[in-house]
Amino acid sequence: MNDILNPDFIRELTENIITWLSINGINILIALLVFVVGRWISRRIVNLMRRGMLRAGVDETLTSFLCNITFYAMLAAVIIAALGQLGLNITSFLAVLGAAGLAVGLALKDSLSNFAAGVMIILLRFFKKGDYVTVAGTSGTVQSIKIFNTFLTTPDNQLVIVPNASILGGTIVNVTANDTRRIDMVVGIGYGDHIPKAKSILEELVASQEGVLADPAPTIAVSELADSSVNFVVRPWCKTSDYWKVRFALTEKIKMAFDEQGVNIPFPQMDVHLFKEEM
Q1: What class is the 7-107 domain?
Q2: Which part of the chain has CATH 2.30.30.60?
Q3: Residue 115 near residue 104 (C-beta atoms within 8 A)
Q4: What is the DSSP string of 27-89?
Q5: What are the pLDDT digits (tens) for 81-122?
Q6: Which end of the chain is more exposed for a tag (fewer CB within 10 A), N or C?
Q7: Domain 180-261, second-level architecture
């Protein structure tokens, strides 16, 4: 400690620093200039790239991903150029960087698999922001697609973060990918009820329901003679955005119409026959 505070040591250190700066000062200034100007140019190029892609109608998530990759690649080139201006051996630096990258890659194997899956999801565009999807056993609206994770919001407003590798390794269901969607309903009536009457009621309700599409035409047919009921399939088509509104409205109207028209919707039941055995 005393050696460090020694005036001669401080003077010698100061002289060495001044000598080093006098020899390398210009290179340091040029390296800083290369870094600052190169970083500014990289940002300008990426901003122009972003505006051009958005103007061309490229997906926002894909645009953000490609712009980020481009910026950091250009920034890495600028840093290498600045280090070269300082007189550092770039070849040795790249070799050390490669070895460090390999070690980090082995340590972060799972993270890298999520990264690779994120790249595939963004490039192949299985879904985009705003789509309602079911992935890795979870359903929700896509809020954002990041490099490692995808963020979903469930219908009850919970945020779910799903690793991208889990998404790409399983089945992806994109509910809102198409403009139209079919509503699949099963309506049961009693065995003692009149089938043509029930069918006529269902056809009138479906035809008059706001949001039901005329093309493709709805399907209403007897599908099953079940244990306790005669089951109809009711399959109208609607816009994807109207799915739940139409489904809820039809369910309510079918129950009310059947009640008014005297058509039974039976409860599950079982007939038990008792036989008295003579002793």
Answers
A1: mainly alpha
A2: 127-174
A3: no
A4: HHHHHHHHHHHHHHHHHHHHHHHHHHHHHTT--HHHHHHHHHHHHHHHHHHHHHHHHHHTT--
A5: 877 777 666 666 666 667 666 665 555 556 778 878 888 888
A6: C
A7: 2-Layer Sandwich (3.30)
